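Here is one chain, start to finish.
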Amino acid sequence: MLKKMRQCRLNFADNRYDCEAGIIGEHYATELIVTPPAIMPTEAVYRLCFEPGGLSEIILQTTDGAFSYPLPSAVTATSCCCVTLIGYVGSEQVYKSRMVRLRFSQTADGDNSIDLQQPGIVDEVNQNTAARHSHANKAVLDKFAESKDGKPTYDGKALGGGASDFTIKMAVASGEDGYTVTSCDATVEQIDAAVAAKKRVVLIATDTASGLFWEMPIIFGSQGNSYEFGTFLEGQVIVSFVDKVGENESKWQFMLTKIAAEAVDYSNAALSYVSTVGEALDKLVSDSHTHKNKGTLDKLSNSNGKLQYNGSDVSLKPTYYIDLAGTYPNYTCPVTMDDIKAAYNSGYNLVCRCTLGVYTATLPLFVPMPAANTWVFSGSGALKDMGFEAQSFTIAITANGVVAQKKELVTPDGTLPNPSDLTLTVGDTTYTYDGSEAVSVAVKPPTQSVTTSDGNITLADNTEYRLTDVSTLGLIYPSGDFECWMRLSFAESGNVTVTLPAYTKYIGTAPDFKNGETWELSFKDGVLAAQKVGEGT
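Its structure:
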């Protein structure tokens, strides 16, 4: 190992990276100085992962918060590689950085070759000597030249129209391990020349088996060393790399793969320890779940700290039974009034039980009056096949004792009792019903309900209007007597205009409608009483 290595710094705390990391093929010539993110705990252990090559090393953090790692030849074998920093606390992965690309340039120093793909000066001279040649059409080739402005000429005349596309044709074959480049008609030197001539360089890769082809522009380049072409298609990344391995000799690679969720950065304050979409999905999927009884659970809610089910209060306390002594109608209550109050205030469901003939009646709480020391329990029903005619049974437990009443709701012949005549007055007509025969009563039709409007409404008798998001509305009164009711909720913004007939009379002041307000209006024969919801007593 060299005593003095060059340094390449990767600062993940400030997102600053030195990407020029040395020369291809070097071994322990460059020291990678890595600063982890400031949010990481001091006890964290780190792993550096390099691709391609699959090299993975665990690195311990130093006292100054950074750590170093000398780059071996396994990392510097090609013109570029990608490095990822992963942090652990114990056995749990808590951090994963973005991928940082390190670049390595060709060597131009030394007489000796590093390897066959990186010849030294001596070998390069030998190769150039062996590559000497002549052209039978030299006289034609000698007529090619370049104008002062850098455009090609032939026999002193300009060629073409200037800059154009430089198209590279590549053939690839697919296999179990991906794609292999079978041929490509361009070298790094030719791409350098096209770039220098300001041409648009395009790579067209064709699958020789299927005939499918992909067109890719340059997405990264290091003149004289390497270029990268790429594009995206339906969740896939298609890339091709070329590295200069010798004079007019290049190595091409082609890859088509799905974009891995782990390769996409992710940031969320609620999941600050997650850095990729893959990690976020792993967390969210593991926490997701379903309920077979979701429809039931959705009916549970909270109102002022009290549990409700389907809009009604739910008691979490068990039933508190008050068992009366004695028989109907002479009952006594052995439970003290203080105990009944305490159970009620604690949320228990109060139920009264007492003997009724050969049965035990169970009555729910009907009217609680704790301030008056009175608790009314009541129930009603009918089951004719068992001899139970329609009846009600009510018990009141008071500070002065127990009061009980059982009321038959039908006469022995099964008809409803009718101790007094029933008189109905509808408009100017009076109807009397004494139970002896049916009486037909003519009443107004049921109230109509209207919830939509095209901007103008002719009011109708005995009709209820409920309109929302109102901005412009015109009202017309019908002829003759009428009465109707209206609830208007006005739009949150814009102009609000409600036009009433000029002869409208008001109970109180005329309404002043504004955005976002809700009003209730009562019309009767051209007289309007209006009140804004939320005001008044």
